[in-house]
Design goal:
By secondary structure, the protein is an alpha+beta fold. It is about 30% helix and about 20% strand.
Amino acid sequence: MPAPSLPTARVIQVDTRGAIILEEESPETRDSRGIYFPNHIEPVSHIAVDVGGSLAKVVYFTRSPEPPASPSIAATRGSSSTPEPFTPRSNSPSAELPTSSSPSSSNIRHNGALTPLVLDSQNYAEGFTLSTEMLRDTMLRRTSQHFPGGSLNFERFETDNIHECVEFIQSLIERSAKVNDVSIEDMRKSVKIMATGGGAHKFYELFKDTLCVEVRREDEMECLIEGLKFITLIPDEAYYFSDELIQSVSHPLPSASAQPSLLPPTRSNGILERPLERPGPNPPKFAVTFESNPTFQLPCLLVNIGSGVSIIKVDEDGQFERVSGTSLGGGTLWGLLSLLTPATSFDEMLKLSEQGDNATVDMLVGDIYGQDYSKLGLKSTMIASSFGKVFKKGKGKGTFSPEDISKSLLYAVSNNIGQIAYMNAEKYNLERIYFGGCFIRGHAATITTLSYAIRFWSKGTKRALFLRHEGFLGSIGAWIKNIGPESS
């Protein structure tokens, strides 16, 4: 009896009840930890790929009755204590980082396998008559595979090494065929690549010809918004920094402590000895605050920071428009620091910036006035001119450390993006401002700079919101798009 042909994808809904974000495996995965859905049952065999100018992001779903790693529930709730409060987990951002933002073959995570639709006996019943033996075999295999529970997995690769991304997907398909005991041909018929980003067009033939699977190209902006709408419904995904935390990291007090930026402002009889510059009413505790009972709220502004920056206004009815942007984004920071420092990867650059002091490179308000400029509300520690101390007429060029240069440039790019984001939020009267994109990477200095810019310019009336999977909005959106009916 000839084997039945595979059915086309049906309408599948992701069951997000009880969804939990898994504990990270290493500092490299702090922005790409898996999401476990304990109640989701239906098979999902497609793979989403968002290929940008710098990074390619992959999202796929695998089945498992238990989470691959113990979920860090406590770490996702924030804390009023001081140890490492400003990362989306309790892991310190100054921990050892990898030397490359693209996972090598030795550290790529192999999280289970895809489930081919050929194992779904209901699909057979819709169009095929099976023998008793084949039906029994199919049901046994379906029972072993279609237990409730599964994980949404995340991987990223440098776009310059796009072949590594293709090889990863190829190995995932081959491993899935072996695990599910189906032929590689049947597995390929089940798999569909949902591609978005500029690389969906540039590398279309590479994906299609190498993987021998169907490749669908999806609109980049639409995928970003769909990804945002879905991911913000996951408990503890969205978070923001308290005013005290923003202040302590962006303007740390001089201290003999090894890590003065981790300490909150000291108190005397319950009163801050160092008041906030732009305090909001009833500021939250000294902590990262997570949205544990999330509801996606519209309208909002999405600031997606990739190689460049796109600023997207989302209306109450879900309609969206790209209203602004800038070419000075993550690619700018990456490129300039590649020229100015010995760092060879984005993670190395972020690590350098954590150890730097921008005051040796930047001209501050205090360098000009010798004190605060109180009339304008400018503290002496505020940056008046990025890289303003690099050249002094008649004194030649100074010598500056890679760490200080990295910190200065990180602040320059982040401050610029923060101010543009605020101006657009003010123009369109939007209170919720989400920041996404792989530029952020869960990095404390980046988050505090963007947060501080929004709080400062809005005089405490607006707040920056961040996402633990900030760099995967496009690929999540592409993955979600195949959950619904295929458009004509």
